[in-house]
Amino acid sequence: MPTSSTLPKYIQVSERLIREIAAGHLADGARLPNERDMARDLNLSVGTLRKALAVLADKGLLSRVQGSGNYVRQRAGVTSVYGFFRLELPRGGGLPTAQVLDVTLRDKPGDAPAFGTATTGWRIRRLRRLDGTVVAVEEIWLDGDRATTLTAQDLSESLYQYYRDRLGLTIAAVEDRLGVAPVPDWAPAAFDLAPGKLAAHISRVSRDSAGARVEFSRTWFDYHKARYVSRMGRG
Amino acid sequence: MPTSSTLPKYIQVSERLIREIAAGHLADGARLPNERDMARDLNLSVGTLRKALAVLADKGLLSRVQGSGNYVRQRAGVTSVYGFFRLELPRGGGLPTAQVLDVTLRDKPGDAPAFGTATTGWRIRRLRRLDGTVVAVEEIWLDGDRATTLTAQDLSESLYQYYRDRLGLTIAAVEDRLGVAPVPDWAPAAFDLAPGKLAAHISRVSRDSAGARVEFSRTWFDYHKARYVSRMGRG
DNA sequence: AGGAATTTGTGCGTATGTATC
DNA sequence: AGATACATACGCACAAATTCC
Questions:
Q1: Which one, of A59, A57, A72, A69, lies nearest residue A24 by Cα?
Q2: Is B218 a residue whose pLDDT tops 60?
Q3: Which of the residues A55, A153, A219, B85 has the least number of beta carbons within 10 Å of its own beta carbon?
Q4: pLDDT digits (tens, 9 = 90+) for B97-146
Q5: How far is B43 from chain A (nearest CA, A)?
Q6: Which residues of chain A make contact with B55, given a CB cutoff of 8 A?
Q7: Domain B9-72: which topology?
């Protein structure tokens, strides 16, 4: 069995299971077949299957109960990485959408944290909505040498990025800084906080496994319209 | 080999290694012996040792490099659970201390998130400092039936809680909500933001594996004096 | 109530692949 | 290129928790 240059079996299996859950083939609360049967059907050893199941349990998608079985936990979305911090309405939830306001390649601002090797960077400004109402503006910087051209189309949904983030292959470190900052003057009128007024603020820096490329983002939002929520564990 | 009613070997070993790192016997950057030798010295199989090392790697205390070795990563503290969110000075770091202002058993406020079964709760108000300067005030609620008596002494450092949190045996879920809120009117004068003014705000709800007991906390802090920082990954 | 069957958890040993030195 | 070290994968035996009869 040549397995060279392919992903490990336990990753392949875990990805396959995640897709099945995301597609709704495995409903919330559903109980999986026992590990021995499942391993036989998937043509792999129980140990390898258990490693794959551990990945899902770690993402909070599976509840493993000794003596009972493995149960699907749909819960707070399958978007494991993005779900770590999620903008929500105060009452919880809300359908998130993003509208790109501006995409330009320009010199990096001096007050930004140092990141990457290039002197230029892609600045992306977006309007974030929950259930249609504007709740935040955000600014994202990508290292200039990361892409030669960048369009609003690329940002909507990159399949490559989807798999990359999902597989957790490149995002090696994330650092969030949370505090209060003035609302930026480029915030559109739809954002009803006056520019310069204090608003909640989050900045994120993430590095890939190579250590080189870094992203920098800012988000401002109104506490009474939306909050950031992070969840940990399998509760 | 009777192992009944004891912790699994891989947990025992991981705890032992964590203690050695915390005690400084294993310095930052130090390279561990190879797994085969280490397993022989500790009198266990390589597979079990690997499981223990995986625990440390998951906590960010160990960097495992294929073909090279296992390296200690002291980094951002050994307090895995608490270290998830850490108050820091804008320039980074700062020695954190806490001063208990008030501990009282009282009826739960109506505006608080529902938690626990009791109608009363312990309210703890603390002053947080970094390098001596006040940077935040925080309010913590414990379910009333969690303890019959509670003193400031108990809060300083509970060994039981230390091991419980360290072992990750009970904290099953954590939820953080971040936003902007007014500075509370009980903030002491040392906190130089006027009460009622907006400040950064974080509330945390955590549940144990039983699902019953929940803690609720709030923190206000001045962005220019301190920020919350969270770190993920092994960067 | 209690014991058997079921199912996941732990632990061991071994062989092979792959990255690093 | 060779040696070293971690990663993956398989299989087995027994323990512990749950479920079912």
A1: A72
A2: no
A3: A153
A4: 667 777 788 886 655 555 555 677 777 777 777 777 777 777 766 665 55
A5: 22
A6: none
A7: Arc Repressor Mutant, subunit A (1.10.10)
